[in-house]
Design brief:
By secondary structure, the chain is mainly β. It contains no helices and eight strands. Helices cover 0% and strands 14% of the residues.
Amino acid sequence: MVSCSKGICQPTSCTDGVLNGNETDVDCGGSCKGCTPLAACLVAKDCASSICTLATRKCAVPTCSDGVLNGMEPTVDCGASCPNKCKVADPCTVAADCVTNTCTNQRCVTSDIPLQTTSWIASASQTENKASSVPASALDGNLNTHWTNGTSQTAGVWFLVDMLKPQTFFSVA
């Protein structure tokens, strides 16, 4: 499509400074980027805030109570920029997004304190025949000990950890 303005014709684009194509406001909405607050819109996707106010057909300012993931929120209506902080397991970008003030691997977590493994019970379907290679060695936190079954992983070979109670964690190191 070509657009002509003030005697100059050019292909329409989202950066031509002219309201054209399927834009709802100048260079935004439609197939262009979302529009800023108070720009014209027809549907939510026309707006950077993902909220098109039906009564005014204007893009709304993002808020921390609009029920939409927008603004600086890592999760709907919570985060560092909002009064409500995100819950454990919610996505986050910085520690201040989280009610626990701990963001690890882009998730709010309970803390950076490692799980206490001292009472856990480890067992295995088979263990290498060495006194130093017992399943508990895999959990003792000592870099000088380890567990091995002495063979390659095959069907039916397993290693089981009983944590004795439900625990939430987000990565295994």
